[in-house]
Amino acid sequence: MSPSSSNNMTSSSSSSGDLAAGGSQLAPSGRQYMMSSSFLEIQTLEILMAVIVFVAIHSLRQRKRQGLPVWPLVGMLPSLIAGLQRNMYEWISDVLCAQNGTFTFEGPWFTNLKCIVTSDPRNLEHLLKTKFHNFPKGDYFRDTVQDLLGNGIFNADDQTWQRQRKTASIEFHSAKFRQLTTESLVELVHARLLPVLKQAADQCVDIDLQDVLLRLTFDNVCMIAFGVDPGCLSPGLPEIPFAKAFEDATQATLLRFITPTLIWKAMRYAELGFEKTLKSSIKRVDEFAEQVIRTRKKELENQNMNNSRSDLLTVFMGLKDEQSGEPFSDKFLRDICVNFILAGRDTSSVALSWFFWLLDQNQTVEDRILEEMHTIIGQRNYETTAGPLIFRAEEVKKMDYLQAALSEALRLYPSVPVDHKEVVEDDVFPDGTKLRKGTKIIYAIYAMGRMEAIWGKDCREYKPERWLREGRFMSESAYKFTAFNGGPRLCLGKDFAYYQMKFAAASILYRYRVNVVQNHPVLPKLALTMYMKHGLKVKLCSRGGIN
Ligand code: HEM
After folding, report:
1. Looking at residues 422-447, what average pLDDT do you find?
2. Pick the CATH number of 155-380+387-413+461-542 from 3.10.20.310, 3.40.630.40, 1.10.1060.10, 1.10.630.10
3. Rounded distance from Cα 485 to ligand 1 centre (Å)
4. What's the predicted TM-score (pTM) here?
5. Where along this sequence does the record place binding of heme (predicted)?
6. Does the beta carbon of 485 lie inside 6 Å of ligand 1?
């Protein structure tokens, strides 16, 4: 109803009141005209209301599919928007639990927001392993993330992907790379992380642990991917423009997935809203990557450093494009670097943040981690007691309970909460869902951790014990626990990530109790990886007398 029609109705009702009182100033013909025109307006309104109610009831009754109302024109979009207001991942989990693990989302008819969402391990195995070639990332995904990720490993299929995977895999499994990662971690944790935490503890100030951990993994991945140290984790926690630009870019890229393609493309063209942010943040990301590539090229020209460096960038610079026989272009090197930063920075840090938050609520789990840690240290020879305690690689590997506690955190809060594939040829999922060529598939990793059918009645509880058999850590099928993906695209950094998380967590827990600040709001943020929306504000309590 328009404001003017509302005013008319008010004035007409008051004039009818005046009429009843016999006090009207209006001539009879004017009065009749007023009455008939208000009558017409009311009738039109009533008809309009009746049509709206009819359409609503009809669509709710007739077209409620998979528990979700399908509205004319806009499909299931209203339900998605309502889900976004609350917590999108919980909304998806609720729908999937009610629909036994698979449902079809239908967006507005004029958009391409239609996809099949699944959390069924049988479908996951089919998707990620058995019929791997029938489910690439696909054109829709590539088009959506192209501006940020280019042709890097996350965004590539077929030979472009295979080439990067093979090279990176050899590198990740080389002794030199393992040595680089272990050494860089000792340096980062002991010379940077612990002093920053000590300062916060000594001064009794709250600290955003997620921010600190993101700085740690950012510096770490830059060291192993680029061979440069950006110094993000240092006293005073300086703002690093590249890190900020990277975060803005990943967030804006995710928004493209929930915006009709035509709309975000128009926004990109007109440089509006999140597209404007994306453009400027990608520019800053590119500037950083280009500078690193230029510097490395100069270094390699001036000195023969090929043998002394073992970072990924140097390895890829030494290779040639199989098709052209030429060295890789700077643009391709930039894509490789940006993809590895995304892979290595935003995953372990957010996983650790959820882990510390869960630990704060589960004292018995923390006690068991400490007990395990002290038993392992107790097996040391006593000639090495001087100086700060630095966990050794073989000790970290023995920490089975800690590994179980981290896996349990990842089960409930996977760093990559949803992932995407596209159907190449018509197919059928093992659960009977028909898949048409070109259909988009979302596999809901977050929801999988909340399925009773997969984990049992206690699926929402934090129980590291479910990962242990006779005290030893036992990994689960990648199609049931998909936090690291599965099949040929299994996370390449999985072993490194566990080592990194265990080393950092043990080094912190050995020295501090991490208390989450009371009433600090903890919610997932809508981004490509599962950041905590408001960070993780904590107070650190020194365990006393430990260096
Ligand atoms: C808790 C930590 C981590 C988690 C939960 C995790 C999870 C994942 C997931 C879900 C994927 C599949 C993504 C996709 O295909 O869309 C993936 C791929 C990948 N991860 Fe990780 N990751 C972690 C840490 C790391 C680290 C530290 C690195 C490297 C420094 C890394 C390197 C990679 C790479 C290179 C891929 C691409 C594999 C491919 O497509 O062939 N990850 N990871």
Report:
1. 95
2. 1.10.630.10
3. 8
4. 0.85
5. 491
6. yes
